[in-house]
Structures are given as C-alpha cells and as structure tokens.
Amino acid sequence: MAEYIVGIDVGGTTTKFGILTTTGENIGKWKIHTHTENDGKNICSHIKSSIQEYCRENQIPKSKLAGVGVGVPGFVEEGSGMVNNAVNIGWKDYPLQSTLEELLDLPVFINNDANLAAAGEYWQGAAKMETSTLCITLGTGVGGGVILNGDVVTGPSGTAGEIGHFLVVPHGRICTCGREGCLEEYVASKGLRRSLLDHLRNPAESTQLDKSSEAIDIFKAAEEGDRLANRIVNEATYYLAYVLANTVVLFNPEKIIIGGGMSAAKETLLQPLVAHFKRFVLTEADQHLSFGFAQLGNDAGIYGASWLAAKRLGYIDD
Amino acid sequence: MAEYIVGIDVGGTTTKFGILTTTGENIGKWKIHTHTENDGKNICSHIKSSIQEYCRENQIPKSKLAGVGVGVPGFVEEGSGMVNNAVNIGWKDYPLQSTLEELLDLPVFINNDANLAAAGEYWQGAAKMETSTLCITLGTGVGGGVILNGDVVTGPSGTAGEIGHFLVVPHGRICTCGREGCLEEYVASKGLRRSLLDHLRNPAESTQLDKSSEAIDIFKAAEEGDRLANRIVNEATYYLAYVLANTVVLFNPEKIIIGGGMSAAKETLLQPLVAHFKRFVLTEADQHLSFGFAQLGNDAGIYGASWLAAKRLGYIDD
Questions:
Q1: N or C: which end of chain B has fewer CB within 10 A?
Q2: Residue A22: pLDDT above 80?
C-alpha cells in the first residue's frame, strides 16, 4: 500500500528531492543539476529517471508512492496545473502537472516554491501547529508564503505571498518586475548591495565596507559597530517592518517566520526589525503574534512539496 | 426540524436582524435601537426579547432555529467568543458568545461586522462563488473583509481585514487608532472631509465646495468637473489604489468588492481608482481580477452573520 510522497523543489541550478512518509518523516533526500537548456524542456524526464534510479537503488517499489508535490520558482496556477512563468527555469505557460503525471503515472500537485517553503515550516518546522503563518525568505530577492486556516494561499494567478513586490518607495529603485520601489530592491541581498553602492558614493561614510562587500558582510560589520553598515541595516529593516506591519493588519497571523540566506544574521537582523515593527503595528494585531527563524533550511521546499501532495490526497486533516 | 438561522448585525445606533434559511433565503428582517448605555450591558437581553417577539408574531417555533450569527463593529476573537474591544458599543473583553448562548439556548457564532459583510457578499451578493474575495466598505471609516478558500480570514486577535489601518503616509494624519497615516484618514468620508478642510485653507482653490460639504458632495462636484473636488478624489483613490495593489500582491484575490456609503459615487470613484491601480499592480496578480460594487447594501451584515452560523454548523460545504 502507498505510504510515501515524493517532494521536489525545482531551482534554477539544482533540483532537490525528498521521499517522505505521509506524516512528514523524511526517509531520504538527494539532488540533481537542473538542465535549463531548451526552455527547461528536459527537466521533467530528468526528474522521472532520477526518481526511478533512487527507488531502484533503495528498493522502494512504485506501489509505495502515493503522489508527488513540486515547488517551482515562479508564478504557478495550482488549479490548472500550469506554470505561468518561471524565468530562471525557462518554463512559460508550461503544463507541468499533466506532463509529470503522464511521465510518472502518479498524481502530481504543483505550487510556488516560496509558498511551499512556508508550508514546510508550517508542517514540520518553525511554525508547527500555527494555523496562520507568514513566512518570508530573504535571499537574493524576497520570497513569501502565507498559510491561513491550515492551507497555503495561492490565488488564481499563483502570485499570493509575493511580498518582495510590495511597493514601499514611490518612484523608487527599478525592480526586475518592471515597477518602481518594490521591497526586494531594499532589503534582500541585492537590495542591501544597492544601498551599499548608493552610500559609498559619499566616501566619508565608508569604513570597513567596500564595493565588493556582500550582504552578509554588511550584517557582520553592523554587528561590529560599523556606522555605515548599521545605517544600511536600519534602512532595510525599516522597510521590511513597514511591510510586515501592513501585512499583519490584513491577515493577523500568529507567527512570522524568517528564512533564507540573510536569516543567518539572526539578532543583528531581528532586533532592529522588531523595534521598527513595534512602532508601526496596530497594537491589537500584535497581541498573539511572535517572530521566529525558519528551521528546515534548504529542506523546507521538499517538506512543503510533500505536504502539498499529502494534503491534496487527503492524508492531512484541516 | 431546525431550518432557520438568525443573523444579527450590531451597530452603534441600530441592531439589525434577519431570519434566513440555511441556504441563504431571507424570510424576514427587522431592527431595534442599540442601547449602548452601561457599556452595552443590556444589548444581549434586548436581542433575546426582540427575537422572541418576532418569532411569536410570525409563528416561528424555537425548534425551527438552528443557530445565531452576530457581527460586531470591533475586534472580535471568534475562537474564544470574546469581543476584545468594540468602542462604539461599549464592549471591552466582553464574553458575547457565551452570554448570548446562555440567554438564547442556541449555538452562537461571532465575528467582526466588516468580515461578515464580506461573507454576505460572498454567499449571496456581488462575489457569489468567488473563492478569494476582498471587500472594502467605504463609510465614515474603511472596513474590510477577506475571503480565502471559501472562509473568512479572522486571525487570532480578530483584526484581519482591517485595511483602513494600512499605513500609507509616513508621519501622516493622526488616526483614531493612535498611529499616523492610516488609509482611512485619507479615503473614507472622514478622510475626504479632512482633505477638503486642508485644501480650503488656500481659498483660491475653492469652487462649489465649502467647509460644510460632505464626502458625497465632493464626489458630486467632481462629477461636475470641479477642480478641487477632482483633486481630492484623485488623491484619495491614489492611496486606496496603492493599498489595494499591495493587498493583491499578498493574496491574489479574484474579486475586489466596494461597498459602504461612498460606493454610491460609482464610476466617479471607480474610474480613477482603477486607473491608479493599473499603474501600481503587479501584472501577473491582475490577470484574473475584477472590481465590482457590493449588492446587498445594509443587509450584507445579516447575510454574513447567517452565513457564519450556517457554515460553522455544517450547512455550507467548502
């Protein structure tokens, strides 16, 4: 009888796999290179052969697999099973669900990778049992996922949770989405780098940072008391706190989870963030709210993808 | 056998009642004055005697009533059944659910009035069958309700959907919530009045509007081409569009419904609002979205309150 779910997290360079039980225990994981050539047309057959190979080597018969969940970095329509647009993969109007279902002969469920990272933390990580959770991933850009009433919020275009594209600065920095002043141009690692370069135009401000410093160096310097670094971190956490306070007014979550590379800065990030947040937030909306860091790291995606399939197949109650 | 639900909409001056079938047909409605004296301590007994009287007069036996839903203008914790704070009623940390259940000997479910107005429009009004809907009510202030995956979003403090307290202007106008720059200080009837008074300080701008003009007069004057009125409407719809675009990025609804007194301005409100919105919104999030006006008017609350009880009692599927 079927008892395992395959969770897949498709990324621009690596595709991660996990075999999980329907109750969320990870019994194996591996990864392969993502071949994005030819608009990613070969990815699905690579996924198929990789699963077959892993199952053969680990003596997992096909009959043990109940279904497959897949997270994709882009706009994904769970309802229609289509990937609207995933620029780093090459998929545009791509019927991912039906393509994989045909190849694997298993039920397949798809969603956005940041949504599923949130679902992973909700199922087996930092937000376990919190029925309303906001997860933000601070990496190169800012990803987000919203869990409400025990399910992931997707929306008809699959753009729900795109907190990185929250507009914060009128006529601000140009974003990759084509608009001006999106949050991720100020707070993600690319945003911090842009702030650094802006500030370094005034050489008097520069201390231990220079043009080649990375986002994580900025946090390190801030921790060591560097004035410019603290100014950049202060500005970034101000914008992020503003967005979180407005998000909290709309959803009233119980938990805000911070993940992604920049979350390694821990208290250097969290302390100014929470200080700004407390000044912005509607008091009543803050009463039952707490902040936390993600716990599943790079595995959040495969947990969340497995959760999606387990949930849609009826293994997880509301 | 039980077949009716009582929907109650408690307001600062009037409490509205409706008797609805579990499938949403309204078979009777009435209203009474809300006695807010003594911190609203007598409201529940007035509700009880009013229901008893109506049922006696209309020959509805108690056995026909399945349950009661109540909407309250304030922060309501549906889970604990407590009204956290309803300033216009006088209830603070008030156990509304248990008080009414004891008096009525019926299951009672409570929620925020704007959330339930949204649920009413979702059940029997302008957003029928739209599984993800945002409703905004433009009255004296700005109320909001969010429907996702077929249920109302409430949050542990009951503050979800409080879109009127979305911060739009740094160090802006002082709001009744104690913070600065909340949306409702710029776009609701009180906000439009504040904008008018601000602008009238410069007498050259004044045309057919004066200090005593109401919000609806501003829309009327705008329609007739009054420059000042158009400037005020343009400013208000700019802020509202900014908030809606950011809200849409967060949860990607299918429908935005506009209700409340100011929605009477129809196209004079909607046309500049949508124009600003199209400039702000993330293209992908706008693909499956449409705007509409509320259809249930002042009855939205009793429909939504009935929906809440019918839903929680299992009469409505997901």
A1: N
A2: yes
